[in-house]
Amino acid sequence: MENEGIIGELKENINKEPNNVQHYVNLANYYISENDLDNALLLYQKIAQLNKEDCQALINLGSIYYYKKMYPEAIEQYKKAIEKDPENASAYYNIGNVYAEVENFELALLNYEKALEFEQDNSDIYSALGYLYQDINNREQAKKYYQKAIELDQFNEENYINIANIEQMQMHTKEALEYYKKAVEINPNNTKAILCLANSYATLKDYVNAQKNFENVINLNPQYYPAWICRAIAYSEENKAHEAIISLKQAIELVPEKTNAYILLANLLIDEKRYEEALGIYKTANILKPADSKIMTFIANTYILLNNYTQAVKYYRKAIKAAPKNNEIKLIYLEMINSYIENKMKEEK
Questions:
Q1: How far apart, in Å, are the Cα atoms of 71 and each of 136, 209, 251?
Q2: Calpha distance 45→36 (Å, rounded)
Q3: What pLDDT, in 10s, does the model give residues 150-164?
Q4: Which residues contact 278 (CB under 8 A, 6 or more apart)?
Q5: SS3 label, residue 187
C-alpha cells in the first residue's frame, strides 16, 4: 500500500506537469529502487523523447537494458550518448562494461581506456580494467589496475579482495592475507572477505585464527554454505575429523541439493575407515548427480575397500560409460581387475 501511495503521488506530479522531465526521472528511479525495470524502461524511453539532448537519459536507458541483459540495445543507447557527448567518460565506461560482459575483450579495453582519457581519477574504471585483465589471466596487469583503484579510493573493500585473490592464486598467501585484513577492516560485515581471510590463515596452518574467522562468518550469516565447507576442510587438515564431519553435515542440511559436501563427508569417513557410512553418502550424491563419473568411481573404490568386487566392477563400468574418454578411470578399473585375478589365483593355489 505504501508503494502504491508513492507511485500515485509521483504519477500525479507528471499529470500536473507533463513536460517536466524531472518528474519522469523521479518515478523511473523509484521503479529502479523497487527492481521494476520494465516500468523504468518505459519512463526513460519517454524521457529520451522529451529531451533529445539529454545524454544522461540515454546512459540510464542503456543501463536498464544492460541490467535486463539486452546487450545490443544497451550498446545502441550508449553509442547515442557518445554521439551527443564524445567526451562523456560514463558512456565509454558503461559500454565497456557491456563488451566485457559479452567477452569482447578488445572493445571493452578500448572503451575503458577512452573513459580514462576524460576521467583519469575514476577508481571504478581502474577496477573494471582490473577485472578485465583478471578474466584473461593477465594477473600482473590486473594487480596494477587494482592498485591504482586503491590509490584513488582506499575505502572500497572489493579492490582489496580482488588483488588478494590474485595474490592467493599466485601462492603469495602472506601478501593475500594482508589485503584480506584490510578489506575486513574497511567492512567488518563482508562475509566474503572474512571467509577468504580464514582460508588464508588455514593455508598458513594458523588454525586458531582460521577458525576464529570461520566462526565470525558463521555468526554473521549462519546460512552461508561456503563457510561450513571451508571450515570443514580446515578442521580436516587440522586432523579434527569429528568437527569436520559436523560442519559438513551442517552444509548438507543447509543446501541438500549440492553434492560437494556429500563427497567431502564421504571421503572423510573413508579416512576414518567408516566404509559403509561413506558408501551410503556417496550413493546419495549419485542420486543427486546420476551421470557423475567421479562419484561412481568413489562408490566403486569403496566397494573395493569392502571386498565387494562384483559391485565395484558394476560401478567402474558405469563410470566408464558416463566418461568414455577418461583414461584414468579405465586404468583404475584394469588395475583392479588384475589385482582381483591375482588374488583369486593365489587363493586357488
A1: 21, 45, 37
A2: 15
A3: 999 999 999 999 999
A4: 266, 267, 269, 270, 302
A5: coil
